[in-house]
Amino acid sequence: MDRINLEASMEEDRRWSYVRPPSNKVKFGERGLAKELRHWHCFDPILVSAPDASGFVPAICLPELSRKLHRGMLLQHKAIMLILAVSIAFIGMLLLFGAGNVVKLRQLLLASAVCFAFFSSDYFLTLRSLKSTQERSMFVTYIYHRPKHVLFPLIALMLACGGIQIFLQADASGLEPLLYEYGLVFSRASDGEYWRFISGPMLHSGWAHWVGNFIALFIAGAVASAIGRRTLVFHFFAYVIVSALAVSALPDSVRPDAFLGLSGGIFGLFGWIGGVSLRTPEDFPERFALFAISFSILSVILSILLSANSSNTAHLVGLGTGLVVGLTKSGLNSHFTAWKLMDRPAPLRKR
Description:
mainly alpha; 14 helices; 4-stranded antiparallel beta sheet; globular
């Protein structure tokens, strides 16, 4: 029986195998692998092992798969750019003939144009190179497999904010009474209730606002966990408070009556990621600083165009503050460059 089991194990080791987070369960078979890689892109963290190999690497790092996966990913990217280009042309035609809401159409046109510029620059400057795509894939895979010591506390904070607000808002019979009681209402904060600069940003204007912040924080927190120290959790709160203070310093004629949301801290983390990648570009994938900063700017512009209540000052101050702190390398984990070894067999074994 032991001999049969040993032979079965050896036979499995000679087959294609793959691992997909978060389960990290090893699966075997070329057919299953082909299905998993059908729509592969450089943000896919799947790890693959060739027959007779001793460990796992990102799929695009295998010579047998790299060219095919790269071509498929470029086709996906071209399809996205084509869809955006068609959208720009269609919205432009509507504007030309005066059909629909002109203000909304202009916002959609600008949003589509900004997205087209972002995807096009990423395509022509980075993704067309197989080596650059491999580096990005290795970095993304490293992020997926790193402990989430920054992300998990921030996600727990977001969940707690949402849950507590639901309870308090039901008790207060609406958002406005809750905001007046606990939120960052500047007229009350200026009377000495400075604690509102901490409690106020924990509130959100609605589900859409909360979900948008949650998704953005998940992205920023995941990258920050991979390349930074636990102290970035405190950085986040500092960015939140600094952005709220910046809004409070605006002239009365342009300052809103109240301030909600944690987006200043989120954009602060994005800025920090851009700052450290600008300071030490050799430690990151090729042109990663350009990608990080352009993605951050894209997020700011989209928030301005698609949300009338967006606090542009908070977003820009958070982003700028994080960028400056990142340029000092404060909070950076010097050991994160281990991602460069992801093109070698990973410690995870088939058995």
